[in-house]
């Protein structure tokens, strides 16, 4: 199709050439005014400071004070990184993160749906360019991400939302408990179609950071989830609000077990634990309404 529009192709090539010239021109202009500095402290100390900024705010102050720090450690600080129509954006402005010879420091949020990407492992091309990730909110949708990459993105996040996300290590899909284990600062986690095993709930209950969660939402849970292990944990849980939504394909026997737990909660007069939301396709709407009311007041 491009060959049938030579003028359009020529225009695009010209625009790209102009952009490249502009970037080169700005870089050249920047370097023209950069001069070697005479610091009062030893060069080795200044070099260490340049290479090891403690916070993004400190780094920004440093490079505003002296260009030396940017030349020695070129980092672009980003508060919000997201994707739109298959392309990366910074604060809703398109930017090719692979284009520039620098690192990126993300400080606030990553919102990354990948359903418009051909390759849904969208971090693979930029992960090597991340200097540091301090995001408080991590939202990933419709993608495949390696466990190693996720380990760089998730540790600082307080709010984590994963929708149709597969986390892989080599060729194996990582279960939910391994993801929660590295989400050490998380206060709220929501996962759609989590990968679980019969031991997932038991392993979760053994994680110190799991007990500190304010909210955990799991959607499209299969009956592989050990509901009896959860029931035991539920009766000792004083902190976390659980939202459990089960898949439509669960068996009648499993539905009966869920309803038994729901009935127990509805019949309880005084709670010394946090009652959860438990939802499945066969649950009577009036029971769900009462359960939600109890949940809301505790």
From TrEMBL:
It comes from the Eukaryota. This is Uncharacterized protein.
């Amino acid at each position: 199709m491009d060959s049938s529009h030579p003028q359009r192709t020529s225009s695009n090539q010209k625009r790209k050439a102009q952009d490249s010239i502009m970037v080169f021109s700005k870089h050249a202009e920047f370097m023209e005014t950069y001069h070697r500095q005479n610091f009062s402290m030893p060069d080795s100390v200044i070099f260490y400071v340049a290479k090891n900024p403690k916070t993004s705010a400190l780094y920004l102050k440093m490079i505003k004070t002296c260009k030396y720090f940017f030349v020695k450690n070129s980092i672009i600080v980003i508060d919000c990184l997201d994707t739109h129509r298959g392309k990366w954006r910074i604060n809703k402005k398109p930017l090719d993160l692979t284009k520039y010879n620098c690192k990126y420091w993300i400080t606030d949020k990553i919102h990354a749906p990948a359903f418009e990407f051909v390759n849904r492992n969208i971090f693979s091309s930029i992960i090597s360019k991340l200097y540091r990730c301090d995001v408080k909110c991590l939202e990933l949708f419709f993608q495949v991400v390696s466990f190693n990459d996720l380990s760089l993105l998730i540790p600082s996040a307080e709010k984590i939302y994963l929708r149709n996300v597969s986390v892989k290590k080599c060729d194996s899909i990582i279960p939910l408990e391994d993801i929660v284990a590295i989400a050490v600062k998380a206060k709220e986690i929501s996962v759609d179609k989590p990968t679980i095993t019969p031991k997932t709930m038991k392993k979760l209950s053994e994680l110190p950071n799991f007990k500190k969660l304010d909210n955990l939402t799991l959607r499209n849970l299969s009956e592989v989830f050990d509901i009896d292990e959860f029931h035991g944990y539920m009766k000792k849980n004083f902190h976390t609000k659980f939202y459990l939504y089960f898949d439509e394909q669960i068996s009648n026997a499993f539905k009966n077990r869920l309803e038994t737990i729901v009935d127990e909660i509805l019949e309880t007069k005084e709670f010394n634990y946090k009652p959860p939301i438990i939802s499945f396709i066969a649950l009577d709407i009036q029971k769900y309404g009462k359960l939600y009311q109890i949940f809301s007041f505790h």
